[in-house]
Amino acid sequence: MTLDMARGLPVKLIIPLIVGIIAVGLGLVFITPQQQGVTTTAFTTPSPTLTETKTTPTIPKTETTQVQTTTTTPTTQTTTVQTTTVQTTPTFQVNLRDFFKTYIEDITKRDVPAVVSKYTSTSVAVWGGKAAGLGGTYRGEGNIRILYIAALGTAKTIQFKEVSYSERMENNLGVIESTQEIKGNSDILGAFDGQVKIVLKIGIMNNKPVILEENWDYLAFNYEKTGGATTFPQWADIKAGRPIALEPDRNFKDLAWLLSDYFALALYACLALISVMVLTALRGKNR
Amino acid sequence: MDNLKAARLFFALGIINGFIALAATSLILFPDLRLAAGPGSILTHNVDIWPGHWGWVSYYMLLIAGVAGAFLWSLSYYLLKSLFGVEKTSKALATASIVLYEIGVLLTVALTGYVGLEGGRFVADGGSAVVVTALIGWAVIPTGAGVGMALLGTLLGLVNLVAALAKRR
Asked: B107 near B141, Cβ under 8 Å?
């Protein structure tokens, strides 16, 4: 009896202790964020516009210039060194036209790593307008990579045709505005075409031009397939009432789709077999 | 396999899965994970936004199939002996059932949990529900494989129980 009590004691202590710890933890988590100025910043929705100054590439730089003045008198020669402080702002030395050309070429080539290399961890890409489900706000090169994988990964071809282009300087950032006609073909969307207004704000980080803000406003976007992009494009076909064409020897997803059907059928067959076994057993018992 | 041994194995799995559930629940104590409040939290936002609600599916799957399911299997094997006097079942079927069930449940819980938390947060932070497919799409087929394994394990377990009862006759 004493031994049993001794064995049960840790359990009696541990369980209330664990429950107590969880209760206190939950209480802290739920109550603390409601207090003013404690952790509210962690839960604040980030502003859609980039206003951080830490990524501003060109901060006015102070340069020191030494001006040497020599004054000669009949008896002694005095040399006076006068120090003058000159504040200069470095000029933005990026060929925006070439940068934009490379940017469009990388997208056309569907080279996701090359495209993503133009962003930083604080870059923001906003795709909006008639963006066919691609619309959203993507912060940081990680999320932007996912955007371009989704946009370019399923595309077979993408072509751009420039409608307009302009560039200007704004707060030491290069601003590019261009309207492009876009057309191509995608596994998810089928044949597509449209027009998009692209606005890029370019800065310099580590002596390299980078996109700090990107805004793609789809003015028009037409595509062949509807029903949404999913892991299995066949789901969109079912939703749209199209026949499903499987190529299991060429496409792993098609193979998985096909095998899943057979697996489910095999499970049903096994369940039927079990039912037969049960019925047989019951019938034999009743005899 | 002796039925008491099978019952003990499933009982142990129930305890292990219970500890996993305890660890999963304790994640809510980390404010950085934003599980309790704010944009992207599974309590306020992800619950009704695809694919965030898969986090809930994962959690309840762990509790129902992982913890409660294991204890029910344990009870089944125990009752097979105490109610029907069946001492042993097929070792191969019982072993396959235990292994497939546990791996299948944990794989499914882990992957759906990833889809719910990471995918839900991506959408809650402004990402598109279409674009998020590029983030979580890889997990869909393995999740299906996990579900298949758990189902197969369950099926083999049922076959084992029924076959043992039929032999008893």
From this structure: no
Nearest CA in chain A to B169: A285
Which residue type, as a one-letter code, is found at position A31?
Answer: I
The reply to whether ipTM tops 0.90 is no
Which residues in chain A are closer than 8 Å to B144, comparing Cβ atoms?
256, 260
**DSSP tag of A126:** E
Give contacts of A 34-93 with B, CB under 8 A: 39, 42-46, 48
Whether pTM exceeds 0.90:
no
Nearest CA in chain B to A255: B141
Q: CA-nearest residue of chain B to A154?
A: B134
Taking only residues 256 to 275 of chain A, the set having a beta carbon closer than 8 angstroms to any beta carbon of chain B reads 256, 260, 263, 267, 270-271, 273-274
With residue A79 as reference, give the H or E element that holds it. strand A77-88
CA distance B31 to A158: 43
Q: Print pLDDT tens along chain A (287 aa).
A: 444 544 555 556 666 666 676 666 555 544 444 333 332 223 333 333 333 333 334 433 434 444 444 444 444 455 555 554 444 444 567 889 999 999 999 999 999 999 999 999 999 999 998 887 788 899 999 999 999 988 887 788 999 999 999 999 988 899 999 999 999 988 767 788 999 999 999 999 888 899 999 999 999 988 876 555 566 777 767 777 778 778 888 778 788 888 888 888 988 888 888 888 778 877 776 66
- Strand locations in chain B (E): none
Number of other residues whose CB lies within 10 A of the CB of residue A87? 8
Task: Check CB contact under 8 Å for B31 and A260.
Answer: no
Q: Which H/E stretch holds residue A278?
A: helix A252-286
**Residue A19 at interface with chain B, using a CB cutoff of 8 Å:** no
Of the candidates B137, B130, B123, B136, the one whose C-alpha atom is nearest the C-alpha of residue B45 is B123
Spatial CA neighbour of B118 closest among B164, B165, B58, B29: B58
